Amino acid sequence: MIVKRILQMLMNFLSLKSELYALNYMFFNVLYLVKYE
Known about the structure:
- The protein has 37 residues and is mostly helical.
- Helices cover 86% and strands 0% of the residues.
- It has helices spanning 2-14, 18-36.
- Keywords: Membrane, Transmembrane, Transmembrane helix.
């Protein structure tokens, strides 16, 4: 089912390394600043 696939993607995302999470966090913060500046 699609729901199972989405849940699996969420679990994979939550189990990523903290370094990847930090990089994504910084990336989206930069996008936010550029978009709303």
